[in-house]
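Deviation from plan, reported transparently: S-adenosylmethionine complex.
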Amino acid sequence: MNKLKSDEVKAFYENWDVSKYPDYLKLLMEFEENLIFKIILEDDFFKSLSKSHKNTKILDCGCGFGSFYNLTKDFDTLYLDFSLNLLKKFKIEKNKICANIENLPFKNGIFDLILCINVLEHVDFEKAVFEVKRVLKTNGRAYFIVVNADSIINDEIFVDWKIPHNLISKSDFKSIETDDFKIEYIISFYFLHPFFKLFPKLILKRIIDLFFKNDEKISKVLKFKGQFLICKMVKK
Ligand SMILES: C[S@@+](CC[C@H](N)C(=O)[O-])C[C@H]1O[C@@H](n2cnc3c(N)ncnc32)[C@H](O)[C@@H]1O
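Because the crystal trials were delayed, the predicted structure below was used instead.
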């Protein structure tokens, strides 16, 4: 993997303004988000947490402006990002912290669950995963979501960013697996071909709805070829 300059990544995110993106891109980002919500809400470990809301400590690591807030707002959740600008845009008063995933300011074994969504592409992969593992409790889970290096979709809006990044593959996760940090599953999702974004907004929306309903089925056929990967890991 390429060595990335974190000051360049930071400069990019300090000025990141999704509200200026064209409509089709907002729709595609929303499609990814909705798929992530669905996958996590249906996950057994996540469902088991719902019973003990306030005693469950969650870290949304690289939370940006809080796209996944609704997933975690009823738990004892801390939202972390290294961009102050994005944290300011994230309209909650408390529980936000500005820090670097490569050097997390927490003691060992604090969190039951860590979400790390579209962040590992921009950082030192091994350092960041090590830090996530360190601050997880025993039996805690981490959900890592990344842009998939082995995708057959290869939409340039997700793979040709103007910021330093590495695409990540299933084998990268396999390479960091240890006896005390095990992969529970890796699946790929999002199979919308870039061709469809040429369609007008209303038609694109319908096509996206169709792909949303069928994502799991397509994933069974195309296995690890989707645009994104989700890797769920457990700390032993
Ligand atoms: C593509 S955005 C994803 C934001 C959010 N997780 C989401 O999916 O909407 C990547 C995020 O990672 C954050 N980030 C990048 N490098 C980081 C680092 N070293 N430490 C903490 N956050 C970082 C960026 O500031 C940005 O908010």
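The domain at 6-235 is CATH 3.40.50.150 (Rossmann fold). We consider this an acceptable substitute for the interim report.
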